[in-house]
Amino acid sequence: MRSTFKILFYINKNKVRADGTTAILCRISIDGKPIVVTTSIYCQAENWDAKKGGIKNERISNQLKAFRQRIEHTYEHILGEQGAISSELLKNTIVGINSIPTSLLEAGKVELERLRLRSIEIDSRSSYRESRLMQGNLQEYIYSKGMKDIAFAAIREEFAESFKLYLRTVHDRKNSYINRALTWLNRLIYIAIDQEVLRSNPLEDVRYEKKDPPKHRHINKSDLKCIMENPMPDERLELVRRAFIFSSLTGLAYVDMHRLYPQHIGKTAAGRLYIRKRRVKTNVEAFIPLHPIAEQILMLYNTTDDSSPVFPLPIRDKIWYDINQIGITTGLKENLSYHCSRHSFGTLAISAGLSIESVAKMMGHANISTTQVYAQITEQKISKDMDKLMKRRKIMQNKENQIV
Fold first, then answer.
1. Mean pLDDT, range 198-203, rounded to an integer
2. SS3 sequence of the chain
């Protein structure tokens, strides 16, 4: 039997601080047993709406909303893992999560837990996975300095500059990676500011590194043909292989493949199948006439039931090893990642003579400058091919001159 679970926010008007603010408290009831948790959020007593259990101030209202979501997610998490829950257990867990950390790594742990719960809610772990990686870098750097943690109050510009240098020299990280690590560091700093642990950002003048030129990894036509000609014996690997090929012929990112439904498939008057779908990342509509091989793959899966996606794909986190294994099995020199398929589509489409405007429409790009990167890749390849041709001609001419 499921527990009865209620949350109520309230204030104690008899306990008002000198500045006119009072603490917002939270009463949690499970099976009729109430327990009070402090939210560490304050408001002006006269602005509190006792009937609605809320406040008109948008910033404070959003904080209360986030606090409520945290309690609800924690409740579901404990109930799912242990099968039973009590007010005391929930409070002890919430107090641990909600305590305001005054040190960097501790704040990172709290934020990671929030992102973990959020990833479950939205069914996407990409942000959580990235943040966990950046937190690991920060922890390793702090440990390398002989510290277990560092207080927010002790952080100076030198700390961030030294952290950037550590990533560059010890781990040989590129500018884009360093910037992502610095973004995570600043994120924790601004959380501390929001919670009034800090008054201002001590890293405000620390500059981000110059952005690396975009490098879109892609496979060539022969590599794609090799993947097409080598079906996988395992059912799961074969699904991933077909999805990779389909993406290489349509330009759909994994998240768009994962959320592709029969309603997104249409047919022209001439009987040609196409996909019309808004991209998850940009919300820009993509229109993609299907390649005959893409049509063949499509017909192997769900094209009629709109309550289920076309391809029964797992979340992207679960197929990293699979896609890499396919690359190894087919003998590709570089590690294969799923997003190579989208970049391969852009490069191959431009190489085949399609206009940049058409490719941009098919790929759902919000800005055509994004598509022009694929044209630059193609131009670079043409230039390299021409250099090879000139080199061969020069070698042949030298041989002819030697004969004469």
1. 91
2. CCCCEEEEEEECCCCCCCCCEEEEEEEEEECCEEEEEEEEEEEEHHHEECCCCEECCHHHHHHHHHHHHHHHHHHHHHHHHHCCCCHHHHHHHHHHHHCCCCEHHHHHHHHHHHHHHHHHHHCCCHHHHHHHHHHHHHHHHHHHCCCCCCEHHHCCHHHHHHHHHHHHHHCCCCHHHHHHHHHHHHHHHHHHHHCCCCCCCCCCCCCCCCCCCCCCCCCCHHHHHHHHCCCCCCHHHHHHHHHHHHHHHHCCCHHHHHCCCHHHEEECCCCCEEEEEECCCCCCEEEEECCHHHHHHHCCCCCCCCCCCCCCCCCHHHHHHHHHHHHHHCCCCCCCCCCHHHHHHHHHHHHCCCCHHHHHHHHCCCCHHHHHHHHHHHHHHHHHHHHHHHHHHHHHHHHHHHHC
Answer yes or no: is pLDDT of 46 > 60: yes
pLDDT of residue 399: 66
